[in-house]
Description:
Blueprint: E1 2-6, E2 11-17, H1 29-37, E3 40-46, E4 59-60, E5 70-71, H2 73-80, H3 85-88, E6 90-100, H4 103-109, E7 114-118, H5 127-133, E8 136-139, H6 148-162, H7 171-174, E9 193-194, E10 197-198, H8 208-226, H9 238-249
Amino acid sequence: xxxxxxxxxxxxxxxxxxxxxxxxxxxxxxxxxxxxxxxxxxxxxxxxxxxxxxxxxxxxxxxxxxxxxxxxxxxxxxxxxxxxxxxxxxxxxxxxxxxxxxxxxxxxxxxxxxxxxxxxxxxxxxxxxxxxxxxxxxxxxxxxxxxxxxxxxxxxxxxxxxxxxxxxxxxxxxxxxxxxxxxxxxxxxxxxxxxxxxxxxxxxxxxxxxxxxxxxxxxxxxxxxxxxxxxxxxxxxxxxxxxxxxxxxxxxx
Length: 253
């Protein structure tokens, strides 16, 4: 049975989980507004409703011994098969063995008509379910969560954020951190003077050419100082290369 927040016809996201109530959090903020607009539907499927016995069991001890419990393949496959095959789209499992989620992957996933996220728990999932049903495994990073629900919330939020119509200003997505492979740099708002710290004067100048140049320079500086490895994977423009060389030569960084 689907425990959908609301069903529309744009992007369809399915979630297999033993804690469907966690996803009610998606009703808030920009994501909640996007759901209400009909840009996306979130449909949660409770794995425990397909448990193997009256005790709602969905996990068991691993063959060969080992720590903890594993989610069984049967409840997962039964739950997945509640979803019409044409509405499943790509089936994704969250795992430390998967490729790391980044903005490029988020944008790629956002182009799918349907996606199904599998939220594992305990020590993982029976490999046979993964081998038969999962199309891709994704990791949020080199750390462990108690379950896939928080990973799915993160991925869903990121995906919905880049869907057309979610943000009021479409330029917000194109100018986000990581959208061009670089960090966004520093930002400021009112008041101009906060505890004797002033907003950079160029941002108050009204000269958009100078402001854009400052933002580009600051983006490069922050990327170099905080995440220099990102520069290895970014195709810098000639202007950015020249600017970076000048900053390095002047020993500003």
